[in-house]
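Q: Got a minute? One more chain.
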Amino acid sequence: MKYRIEIAGRGSEIVLGKVNRKFYDLLAKKELDISDYAWDESFCENNDIKIPKNIRPFEAGSWFECDGMAHEYGAEVPCAFFAVTDEDGNVLLDNVDISILRQQGADIEYNEIDPDGILSDGEVYFVGQTFEKGLFNSFEIEANTFVPGKLIVQITNVDGLELITGVQYDGVYLEDLGELSTDGKGTNFELVIVGED
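A: Always. Here it is, folded:
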């Protein structure tokens, strides 16, 4: 029998990438906002500023390309809900959170991406993040019966943000069906200096 697993709720797309300190200093000196650079393809023209290509972390407006350290997408762990239905439309799990799955025997595979462990004090990195709500993942499996204890949920901690980034069932990594359907709820763009609060 076929079973469908869906993960919905609130979540994010997040990228982390190293930034040349000269780029950071240039924006700070001109009192320009990284958010404007991240969104606006015409940033340099609009602000009458020349940014040498060799210090640009990404082209203006293409924030999602600054992902040398991380590029993840998924529902946030505290806001994620799992649903499982069979091919006849019977609901086996109805929007349960990770704690309920754990009680039913599911396991966790945990990964962490921490810029402080990658970069040295004084180095700069970019954080680009969208906030979204809706359906993040859908998977399909074939099995005689669905057993929650055969699930392994992959959680990736990206600079303190815990996202569900994948699922295994019975030892097999499941491929997302690509049926995501989310609404954007906001963005966050910032430059962070390692070792500074």
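A: The first helix runs from residue 21 to 30.
Q: Perfect, thanks.
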